[in-house]
Amino acid sequence: MCETAYGKLERIYLGGEAEVRIYENVVEKIRKPKRYRHPKLDEILRRSRTKTEAKIISLARRNGVPTPVVLDVEGDKIVMERIRGKPVKEVMSTEISEKIGRYVARMHKAGIIHGDVTPMNMILSGDKIYFVDFGLAFIEDRVEPKGVDLHVYFESLKASFDNWEELKEAFLRGYRSEYERADEVIKRAEEIELRGRYVERRMT
What we know:
The chain is α+β, with helices and mostly antiparallel strands. The protein has two domains: 3-81, 2-Layer Sandwich (Phosphorylase Kinase, domain 1); 86-203, Transferase(Phosphotransferase) domain 1 (Transferase(Phosphotransferase), domain 1, Orthogonal Bundle). Helix content is 49%, strand content 23%. It contains six helices and eleven strands. A hairpin with a 2-residue loop joins strand 9 (122-125) and strand 10 (128-131). The protein is globular. The N and C termini lie far apart (50 Å). 32% of the residues are buried.
């Protein structure tokens, strides 16, 4: 890979929303243009969402959630500290899931909806679990989107781990330990799951 101002470019990931470039010590995240939108509107939206994402990353960090340090924001690009460690999906345990529950609770207390709480978006570095992708995050204090956050996490556990029920219970312990409205959100997550089952039954 080529040398740049950030050092050696090691890897490039192409996601649905962004291109992520991994350098020696930093990570660049660049939001991809959407061809179906008017070019000028698309540029405005990408810049706005990039700025919002950077602010939410910093807000989560201030509220006790490990995140990369935002080093620079320019247009549709965020430059962040590179977190070295192992993807949580590869090292998941009940201890880690409980810690994730505590971190998600801290985000929810701060009014942050992550939007994509899955082990794929977390890195274990030392004894900390870093949340490294806030591309779908937004600020909201209603119970419904918080319930969706939990539902997404539980579904990701079911899809990836045989002991998903133990991991779910561990998450709930951590979540309840940090958030006074936990039971209200957990109940909503259960309702969201039931809605999904109802839709599946009607479609079969």
